[in-house]
């Protein structure tokens, strides 16, 4: 049996239907139909998660002042982390981790079987964590929720492990497509990060799920890009050297980000007391958000401000609002946020929050790209670079470096912003960022996999899903490194 059943009238009726299906409908045809169903369900799940996050943020921060300090920045993150911790450990009763790790483990060790509780656990935990200010992203949890939806649908129809793995990939791709409205990036995520084989049997189901989930998102949100971007100036061939330099710069920024998060998560794993972990993580997160409010939540508002060419706007609600027109202060402020983001992300997860690293890498990338152009323009060499254009390019660079997925970085950035006119520099920056550091260092920088696997391995034996978690983590890590 593909899953445990309760012997009752419904299960016997369903068993008869599935048995008849096996005699009349081929698995290939069924897989295509189920990929459509998974796409719809994952698209709805992604939109539900986004709505919950925005509703909580709006409720808590809509009255915040842009010109004065907001002391509640010290309160809401702490409240959100304790609610998320209680929800995960006493309602879900399962360590969700960074999401992607669970999916890799299920593919490598559990024949792609994921439990139903991953769906509501990931969505509920991420909504509370991010809505209250946790400095993480919703994409890791929605990948886990989407993959679990695919697994549950496949198990219900008694698919073989090979086809179940494809449906798990469909769910993960649909989750990314539904939350970012980026169907191509969703498919590339499954191929580059989850390492699902690219064959004729996998491409069509992945495309169907991704496009369906993105269509659901467009129907519910409107046909607009995730970020509002208007190209401020055309990209000239004379700017290609700067694009290459930006690729190298964002590559090392991604390495710093990954290493810093790994280091901080190692520190949190070394603390045995859950209360002490919470106090340390919540205090660090609250203080960082109070000093740098753009660290609150996913930070997408700050990305939109930079893409619009308004760097002074990100100082709203801070102690430094009066210095928003100071040229070098803006550069220092953006640089400080880049340096602190990794610690805020690690503190969120270390204190018991639920979230991923897609949004943090996009956030750091946008700030890094804008800072690169901003400083180049300040130098006395007559350089004129578009800050908004380079902010967009920086998103692709850091994403490619952190995830080691250059194709996904290119298409995700283009689809999220509608910046297809900058496709050439995206093709330059993203591979340059992924290849700008030594291969050995880069392998240790697979943020969603390697350090998340280390975190998951720390709970070996604590989950009924993984009696041999350590071996599974090693297997998943080997899978990612090839």
Number of domains: 2
Which of globular, elongated, flat, extended, rod-shaped describes the shape?
A: globular
CATH fold descriptor of the largest domain: Clc chloride channel
CATH-assigned homologous superfamily of the largest domain: Clc chloride channel
**CATH level-two architecture of the largest domain:** Orthogonal Bundle
End-to-end Cα distance: 32 Å
Polypeptide structure, described:
The protein has 482 residues and is mainly α. The chain has 2 domains: 203 residues, Clc chloride channel, CATH 1.10.3080.10; 217 residues, Clc chloride channel (Orthogonal Bundle), CATH 1.10.3080.10. Helix content is 69%, strand content 0%. It contains 20 helices and no strands. α8 runs antiparallel to α16, α10 crosses α15 and α10 runs parallel beside α19. The C terminus is likely disordered.
């Amino acid at each position: 049996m593909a899953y445990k059943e309760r012997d009752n009238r419904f299960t016997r009726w369903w068993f008869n239907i599935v048995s008849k299906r096996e005699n009349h409908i081929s698995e290939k045809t069924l897989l295509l139909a189920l990929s459509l169903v998974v796409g719809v369900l994952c698209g709805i799940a992604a939109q539900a998660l986004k709505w919950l996050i925005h509703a909580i943020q709006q409720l808590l921060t809509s009255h915040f002042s842009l010109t004065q300090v907001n002391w509640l920045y010290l309160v809401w993150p702490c409240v959100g982390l304790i609610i998320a911790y209680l929800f995960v450990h006493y309602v879900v009763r399962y360590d969700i981790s960074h999401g992607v790790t669970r999916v890799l483990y299920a593919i490598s060790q559990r024949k792609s079987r994921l439990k139903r509780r991953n769906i509501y656990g990931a969505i509920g935990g991420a909504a509370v964590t991010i809505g209250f200010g946790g400095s993480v992203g919703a994409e890791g949890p929605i990948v886990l929720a989407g993959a679990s939806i695919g697994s549950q649908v496949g198990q219900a129809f008694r698919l073989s492990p090979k086809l179940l793995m494809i449906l798990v990939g469909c769910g993960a791709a649909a989750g990314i497509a539904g939350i970012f409205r980026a169907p191509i990036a969703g498919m590339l995520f499954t191929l580059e990060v989850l390492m699902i084989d690219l064959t004729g049997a996998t491409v069509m189901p992945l495309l169907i799920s991704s496009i369906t989930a993105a269509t659901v998102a467009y129907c519910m949100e409107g046909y607009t890009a995730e970020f509002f971007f208007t190209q401020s100036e055309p990209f000239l061939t004379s700017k290609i050297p700067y694009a290459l330099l930006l690729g190298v710069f964002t590559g090392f920024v991604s390495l710093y980000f990954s290493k810093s998060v790994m280091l901080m998560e190692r520190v949190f794993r070394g603390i045995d007391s859950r209360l002490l972990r919470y106090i340390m993580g919540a205090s660090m997160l609250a203080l960082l958000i109070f000093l740098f409010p753009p660290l609150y939540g996913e930070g997408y508002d700050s990305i939109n401000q930079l893409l619009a060419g308004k760097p002074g706007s990100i100082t709203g609600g801070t102690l430094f609002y009066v210095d928003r027109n100071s040229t070098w202060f803006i550069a220092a402020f953006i640089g400080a946020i880049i340096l602190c983001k990794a610690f805020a992300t690690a503190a969120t997860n270390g204190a018991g929050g639920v979230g991923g690293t897609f949004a943090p890498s996009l956030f750091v990338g946008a700030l890094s790209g804008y800072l690169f152009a901003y400083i180049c323009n300040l130098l006395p060499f007559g350089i004129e670079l578009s800050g908004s254009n380079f902010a967009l390019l920086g998103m692709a660079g850091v994403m490619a470096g952190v995830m080691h997925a250059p194709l996904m970085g290119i298409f995700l950035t283009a689809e999220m912003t509608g910046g297809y006119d900058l496709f050439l520099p995206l093709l330059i920056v993203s591979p340059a960022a992924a290849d700008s550091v030594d291969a050995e260092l880069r392998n240790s920088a697979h943020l969603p996999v390697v350090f998340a696997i280390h975190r998951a391995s720390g709970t070996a034996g604590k989950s009924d899903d993984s009696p041999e978690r350590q071996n599974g983590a090693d297997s998943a890590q080997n899978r990612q490194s090839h």
